[in-house]
Specification:
By secondary structure, the protein is of the alpha/beta class. The protein has ten helices and twelve strands. A hairpin with a 7-residue loop joins β11 and β12. The protein is globular. It binds adenosine-5'-diphosphate (ADP) and magnesium ion.
Length: 273
Amino acid sequence: MKLTINNLSFTYAGVPALSDVELEVGTGEVLSIVGPNGSGKSTLLKCINRILKPKQNSVLIDGKDTSTFNLKELSKLIGYVPQSSTSTFSFTVFDVVLMGRKPYIHWSLSERDNEIVADMLDFLGIGDLAMRHFNELSGGEQQKVIVARALAQQPQVLLLDEPTSSLDIRHQLEILCLLRRLALTKGCSIIVSMHDLNLASRFSDRMIIIKKGKIFASGTPESVLTEETIESVYGIRCKVTNSVLGKPQVVPLISDLPEETTLKMRPEITEKL
Ligand code: ADP
Ligand code: MG
């Protein structure tokens, strides 16, 4: 499976949010999207799964224009985990995950649908939560359930919008390890937006960094996470080191920030940060 994006642009009521985005993602690849708040990460993910419809569709799966697919066909190909799940499900975990089977259900549920849901809960290590109520779970547990629901669609491409943003460090690692495992064992292509540059570096095959709706850099974490690029995109200086993990890790520097950013802190304070 190959997902190709050609020349994608999107405007909200005349205000450009994405311009000329070009991208390719292959089978079993993990691609992360990073960039400042408001740079267009969520808009890009929503254009890929057609929640938003760019004037000229430029998203192709194996060379086929995705605007020619109906909703059911598209949901069998692309799964989506939104930035926050606002609906407070009073359903059980099992039923929430079963909702992911919707594109496949014709008249009634089959034994196969129940089996797939049970498999997905096992894959995420949350089989023991199956009969709990979704809205009584912790944020980390809820995130895994929402990922399981997207996986129950058995998509070839999984899009996740900041799936780790509200999680503690252990759950962040768990979710990202899971995405790698999914790519490796099921050949799923993963496109994930996130803020943490160091986790993105560690878990992705390739990264893109977006600035004001345009891809500023794309490639391996080594080629994208340079001190120059980070300064141009985020306006902060940093040191990039790969001494611990063999992957670039970014250490932001405070002492060079403009005065208004450091709230006019005295130098003896900023030097220690
Ligand atoms: P990110 O996910 O990187 O924070 P978004 O894709 O949410 O960025 O937003 C990109 C730009 O589009 C921002 O300037 C934002 O204000 C604007 N935007 C996002 N959603 C809407 C909307 N529904 N209507 C109008 N403008 C929007
Ligand atoms: Mg966003």
